[in-house]
Every structure is written in C-alpha cells, then in structure tokens.
Write a structure and sequence with these properties.
Blueprint lengths: L2 E4 L4 E6 L2 E6 L9 H17 L4 E6 L22 H10 L4 E5 L2 E3 L1 H8 L2 E5 L3 E3 L13 H9 L1 H10 L2 E3 H6 L5 E3 L3 H14 L16 H14 L5 H10 L5 H16 L2 H15 L4 H4 L8 E4 L3 H12 L4 E4 L3 H20 L5 H9 L1 E4 L10 E4 L5 H14 L5 E4 L6 H5 L8 E6 L8 E6 L5 H13 L3 E6 L6 H18 L3 H11 L5 H8 L1 H11 L12 H8 L12 E2 L6 E2 L1 H14 L8 H21 L6 H11 L9 H8 L1 H12 L10 H9 L3 H7 L1
Parallel strand pairs: 3-4, 4-5, 5-7, 6-8, 7-10, 11-12, 11-14, 12-13, 14-15, 15-16, 17-18
Antiparallel strand pairs: 1-2, 2-3, 8-9, 16-17, 19-20
Helix pairs in contact: 1-2, 2-3, 4-5, 5-9, 8-9, 9-10, 11-26, 13-14, 14-15, 19-25, 20-25, 22-23, 23-24, 28-29
This protein binds 3-hydroxybutanoyl-coenzyme A.
Length: 699
C-alpha cells in the first residue's frame, strides 16, 4: 500500500523512499483555490521540515494540470495564502522540487511550474498565460520567471497574446526541460528518480538572469499605446516584464501591484463575466438533454453564408453535401469553400496535410433529392419566405424521418417555415454569423413545436463547431438583429441631428468597438439595410422618426460601401477617407427636414447609442426571446464585435444602473417620445434595486 497522507481535501503527499510526490486533486481543472494553495504550502513546508525526502515531484490528478487561479474567487476578499507567497515557499525549498505538467498549465498553473526547479512535460500539453483575456496579467511570478527562461520577446508574446503554446514549442523555448509520455504519477516517479540519479538537472528560476531587451520592450509599449490605448492590463504586462531584469523580489513587487490595480478595474469584471458567460449560455437544461446523432450535413445555398457554414462543418470533420440550383452557383460555392479552407491553413486552423482530405468531405450536388441521407439540413438561401417555404416543403418529402431541418434565416418567422412541413418538431433556426467559419456565435432559434432533442442537437452542433450556441425565441431578428435594428437608428439620428458619421464611428471605437457603425455598414454592404427598410416600409410605425434618409440616398447613387469602392467612406489604397458627397447628402436632408445641426460630445454619442441598445436588450429579456441577460451579452460579444472588456450590453448596463438609464431615457424622450420608451423591466429594476446580474443568478 502506498504511504499517502492527505494534507487536505485537495492535496496529498505520497512517500516512496527518497521520493515524495505531491498530488493536486481539485476537479474539473485543478484550479488553485484557497484549499489547493494552503495544501501546497503546507505540504512543501512539512516535507522540508521532515527533511527525509531527497526530491519532491508535484503532479495533478484528472484530465489536466492546474488551469490557473480559481477565477470564482476574483472580486471577493482574498483568502490567504496568496499564490505568489506559496510559489516563493516552493522555490525556496531546499529539497529539489520538480513539476510534471499534463493537459493544460494555464496562468497560475504555469506559474506553479515556473516556481519549481525543473519541469517535465507530458506529450500533448499546452501552456499559456491567458490572464490578459481576463483583464489581468500573470500575478504569481509569470512576468518575472517566464522571461528568465524564454527571454523577453517570447514572454511578451505569450503574456500579450494569451495564446497556448504546444509541447514542442514549450521545450524549444526552455519552458519545460523534458518532454515524455505517460501517466502523470508514473512520470513524476521516474523524473524524481532522474533527479536523484543526476540525469535531470534542477535549478531555481530566480537564479537565472533575464537577458535585457530594451528595444523589444520599447517597441511593444509603443505598439500598445497606438493600438490599445483604452486597455489597462496590456500596458501593465510590459511594465512588469521590464522589471524582470532586476532581482526577483523587486520584480515580484512590481507585478503584484500591477495585478492588484488590474483586478480593481471594470475591464477585469467585464472580461470575467465574458469567461463565465461563454460557458453559462449552454448551461441550461434544454442544451443537456439527449441529442440526435449528426454524422452528415446538407447545406442548401452556395453563397457566402452557405459556403461559410459548409466550411465550418468540414473543419469540424463533418461531411457536407452542398446543394445549389445551377452549376455556376455550385462552382462558386465550391470555390468559396476551397478559399475558406486555404485561409484556415494559412491561419494555422487546419494543417496543410489535412486540407485535401477535408475538402474531399464536400460533395456538391444540383439535386435536392441527394439530401435523403443527411441527418441535418441547413438552408442558407436568400431571405424570402416563399422561397424558404417551398424548400422546406420539398425537404419534408425528401429527408429521412428524424432528420433535422434548419433554417439559417436571420429574422424570418421559423414557426411559419415549420408550418410548410408536416414535421414541425424537426424544424429549428440555426442562425450563423458571417463569415460563418470564423464568427463564433450561433443563435439556436427554438420555434413553438421544435422537439427538445432537436434543441439539444443544436447546442451539441455548436460545441462541435467550436461555436457559442445561444438559445433565442422566435421574433423578427431574434436576439441580435432585433436589438441591432433598434439601436442602429440612434447612429442615424445622431448624424441627422448634428454629428458626422466619422465622429459617431470614432466615439464608438473609443468605447471599444473594433469598428464604428458606419464602417460596419460599408463593410457589410449598405444595400442590405436598404432592402430591409424597403421590406419594412409598409409596416413601419407611422409615428416613428425615419432613420434611413441619408443611407437611402447613398444607396440611390449605387454606393453600397466597400464592395462598390464608396459608401460613408471612400476606399482606395490606404486608410478609408470620409466621402465628401455624404456630407452634402446630410446637409441636404437636414435642410429639407428643417433640422438645425447641434453639437454632440463623444460621451453623448456613446450614452445614446448604448442606452438604445440596452432598452431593446431589456425588452428581449423581458419577453423571453433571450432566457437571461447573459445570453444577450454573449450574442453581442461573439456576433457583433461588442468590446469584451465591457462584458456585453447588459453587464455594462449594471455599471450605469437602472435609475440613471431611466433618467437618460426621460431626457431623450423630450425629443422623440416614440423612440425613447422605458422598458418595464428597467422601471421594475430601478424600483426594487435588482440588477441584470441578479436576473442571471435567478434564471
Ligand atoms: N477557475 C475556476 N473555474 C474554472 C477555471 C478557473 N481557472 N477554469 C475553468 N473553470 C471551470 C469552468 O468555468 C467550467 O465550469 P462549469 O463546468 O461549471 O461551466 C469547468 O471549469 C470546466 O471548464 P471548461 O468547460 O472551460 O473545460 P475545457 O476542458 O473546455 O477547458 C481549460 C479547460 C482550457 C482549462 C479552460 O477552462 C480555461 O481556459 N480555463 C481558464 C484558464 C485561465 O484563464 N487561467 C488563468 C486564470 S487567472 C490566474 O491564474 C491568475 C494568476 O496569474 C494569479
């Protein structure tokens, strides 16, 4: 019987002669919460006090090494011992102390390894310092010990990208000392023996000096200043790594202060909301039920959307039958899929060796009957209800019983589409975002009669495609496009009333959007919004202030944005420049409508835009189109380029507060009472003091 001493629930010591093994066991990902920290500190202290073991090896049980600090503890009062202190105790151990890393060692997990005297990796491992994705920086020695091993440029890259580094790269860059295969405990025993034999050298990382590299630091600092001026932690990462050339204790102090400062920013709160939100959206009973098996998928439509969807499925290893009505359309579809896969190879998402085999899983066809054997059909033809109904009527007779019939419609009534079949239980909306093989959002639109296992299949598919599946109810535009249709009018009203499109774009880019709404319109094609406005012209509320005058006139010139070389901006080589003709159009529209332009500050623009977004988002939660506020937040983060560090529109709303939002709505309503109506949910929240975060917990 092995001699195992349980230090606490999550840490144990196994003594094997001269060797002591410390095992970390905190499923599912061995996060270093308080119990792990305390146990590690106690175990190392005790073994040093006993002074009988001649080597200590730390390994972890389960599927992975340590995934980092316990993120659920962030934002709460810190519980000692702090991670950096535990790692200092480990590094100071007079008995050689090594770690065995399998699965992923992320954040505090990698920092744990760096504090040991040698690291043995198990094949397949990935290491990273992803704290930047949480609005933080490595706070337990990562910015100090990593550059000592890898040099400053590599450490800057790892900390600023947050990327995961594979086993080979980790070995080449000195992060691990040895790469082997095997079970973590067995490897720990063998490696410990190698330390005893003298075949695995050990040393304290603090004894290694960081090679100074002022150029890399200065260049990176300048790049961040230009590209991410509004972000907090990236700049702190550079400062902390710069401090790694001095004594470890001094550098750790700089890192600690920077970590505490980052922890106190709203950016950290927003990004941690994003981390848990991404997981919460599929943490609902409907997503967890039994799903239907999907081994083969049919995609109808070889346009940009259909080809992107087909690419996404192929990249997940699922064979696709692509259907088009005419040969030229089919050829275009095949060409687009081929181009997408080549792009995936160049981005490192698909290995060059697998490219041909992946493309070979695409079987193009002009015959709908070829969909008889697929398990799921995704229709991605243009947005016309009659065309969709006709297709679903045909699928009803062609597809095998139990096949899932999905529409990629971005706003049409999925109940009406389902009614074109005699198997409404098999019909669902699967709304992808363009480019579908890149964008991570998938709205799973549940119609009245959609069967539970079809809904679960939608979530299972999202997972296979590495997408974030969010449940949405049926309404015009579902969650995302419905909210977009509402708040995008604000940008137009601001321009009509005095702002320039460039000012609106710049203000919102300053807020954190990658592109302002006019640049997005130019990129997507202004004709899309034009068609929508025409479609909705007859049903438009007569009391609504029309928002499309300027955009309509731009489109009447045939200027649809990037694809025609001009829209709000002119696209020649180099950066886009504002289109002077648009300024004339705006002046003309204002003159016709008797509008005297006024001044808006950038903050006015942000406040109005965000308040409009929050209003419709609140209504979407109120009427159940979205199950919870976090579902809306994730739709915007993963489908609409909402800045991750703001957490999503409703997380951001909590930072303003319902009462302040109502005050704003009242102020704006003086100008346009029809548009600026307070959602009942916000009124209730202001009255009873609840927040969107409370609603997330309650759901
Ligand atoms: N703390 C607390 N919970 C965590 C966690 C962490 N660090 N990492 C993952 N979890 C939870 C997830 O929320 C999820 O919970 P749920 O089942 O209730 O939804 C569960 O563990 C499993 O996680 P995943 O679903 O993400 O499992 P995967 O196998 O897909 O991925 C992983 C595993 C790659 C480890 C991924 O979870 C991950 O990237 N985790 C975060 C890693 C990270 O950011 N670490 C840095 C933390 S900050 C830090 O260390 C600060 C330090 O420098 C002081």
């Amino acid at each position: 019987m092995p001699d195992i001493e349980q230090i606490n629930d999550q840490i144990s010591i196994e003594r094997q002669g001269d060797i002591a093994l410390i095992c970390i066991n905190n499923p599912p990902v061995n996060a270093s919460g308080q119990i792990v920290r305390q146990g590690l500190q106690d175990a190392v202290t005790r073994l040093n006090a006993e002074n009988t073991a001649r080597v200590i090896a730390i390994y972890a049980a389960g599927r992975t090494f340590v995934a980092g600090a316990d993120i659920t503890e962030f934002g709460k009062p810190p519980q000692p011992p702090a991670l950096p202190d535990v790692f200092n105790v480990m590094e100071a151990s007079t008995i050689p102390l090594i770690s065995v890393i399998h699965g992923t060692a992320l954040g505090g997990g990698l920092e744990l390894g760096l504090a040991t005297h040698a690291r043995v990796g198990i094949e397949g491992l990935r290491v990273g310092l992803p704290e930047i994705n949480l609005g933080l920086l490595p706070g337990a020695g990562g910015t100090q010990r990593l550059p000592r091993l890898t040099g400053i440029p590599f450490a800057l890259d790892m900390c600023l990208s947050g990327r995961q580094v594979g086993a080979k790269e980790a070995l080449e860059n000195g992060i691990i000392d040895l790469l082997v295969s095997g079970d973590p405990r067995d490897v720990a025993l063998t490696a410990a023996q190698q330390v005893l034999d003298g075949t695995l050298p050990t040393r304290r990382t603090s004894e290694v000096e960081t090679q100074p590299d002022d150029n890399a630091l200065a260049e990176t600092a300048a790049m961040l200043k230009a590209k991410q001026p509004h972000m907090f932690s990236p700049h702190k990462i550079v400062e902390a790594i710069a401090a790694s050339t001095g004594p470890l204790a001094d550098g750790l102090k700089v890192e600690r202060q920077a970590f505490i400062d980052s922890m106190n920013t709203p950016q950290r709160a927003g990004m941690i909301h994003a981390f848990f939100g991404e997981r919460a959206v599929s943490n609902i009973p409907e997503a967890k039920g039994p799903a239907r098996e999907i081994a083969k998928i049919g995609v109808i439509g070889g346009g940009t959307m259909g080809s992107g969807i087909a690419t996404s499925c192929l990249l997940a290893g699922i064979p696709v039958r692509l259907i088009e009505v005419a040969q030229d359309g089919l050829d275009r579809g095949i060409a687009t899929v081929t181009k997408n896969l080549d792009g995936a190879v160049s981005r490192g998402k698909l290995s060059p060796e697998k490219r041909d085999a992946t493309l070979a899983m695409l079987t193009p066809s002009l015959v709908m009957d070829d969909l008889a054997d697929v398990d799921l059909v995704i229709e991605a033809v243009f947005e016309n209800m009659d065309v969709k109904k006709d297709i679903f009527g045909k699928l009803n007779t062609i597809c095998k019983p139990g096949a899932i019939l999905a529409s990629n419609t971005s706003y049409l009534d999925v109940n009406e589409i389902a009614a074109a079949t005699t198997r409404a239980q098999d019909v669902i909306g699967l709304h992808f975002f363009s480019p579908a093989h890149v964008m991570r959002l998938l709205e799973i639109v549940v119609a009245d009669k959609t069967a539970p296992d079809v809904v679960a299949s939608g979530f299972a598919l999202a997972k296979r495609l590495k997408k974030v599946g969010v449940r949405a109810g049926v309404c015009d535009g579902f969650i995302g496009n419905r909210i977009l249709a509402h708040y995008s009018k604000t940008a137009s009203y601001l321009v009509l009333d005095g702002a320039t499109p460039q000012q609106v774009d710049a203000a919102l880019e300053g807020f954190g959007f990658a592109m302002g709404p006019h640049k997005v319109g130019d990129l997507a094609g202004l004709d899309i919004g034009w068609m929508t406005r025409k479609r909705k012209a007859e049903t438009r509320d007569p009391n609504e202030r029309y928002a499309g005058d300027v955009a309509d006139r731009i489109c009447e010139h045939g200027w649809f944005g990037r694809k025609t070389g001009q829209g709000y901006y002119i696209y020649n080589a180099g950066a886009p420049i504002p289109n002077p003709e648009v300024a004339n159009i705006i002046d003309a529209v204002r003159a016709e409508k008797g509008i005297t332009p006024r001044t808006f500050t950038d903050q006015d623009i942000i406040d109005r835009y965000m308040t409009a977004m929050i209003c419709e988002a609140a209504r979407v939660v109120e009427d159940g189109t979205a199950r919870r506020p976090v579902d809306v937040d994730m739709v915007f983060l993963f489908g609409y380029g909402f800045p991750r560090h703001r957490g999503g529109p409703l997380h951001y709303a909590d930072t303003i507060g319902a009462a302040e939002l109502l005050t704003r709505i009242k102020t704006y309503a003086v100008e346009d009472a029809n548009y600026w109506q307070a959602p009942a949910l916000l009124e209730k929240m202001a009255a009873d003091g609840t927040t969107f975060a409370d609603l997330n917990k309650g759901a």
